[in-house]
Fold:
Amino acid sequence: MGDLDMGMKFLFLAGALALAGCATTREARESAAAAPVTVKLIAFNDFHGNLEAPRQTVDHPGPGDAAIRVPAGGAAYLASAIDALRRQNGNNLVVSA
Structure:
């Protein structure tokens, strides 16, 4: 557990340093301080290298009362889900544990 805590502290520090370095001029720092910015944090864990989609499906709401069976799982499904979340907010940070 100690290694995970240290890793999370490193990620937080690296992200904070990256954000701190965004404003380089006094005017930029002052305008950034005046207007709050919403950042979407997209986090996932326990991926365990499951690259291929399993032979399972989930019900997705379809037209009317019909349900559409779609494959779920695997790297392609995860990547498309993360892309959809990233498109919802241009200011985002994707992290994995």
The radius of gyration is 19 Å. The longest helix spans residues 2-20. The chain has three helices and four strands.
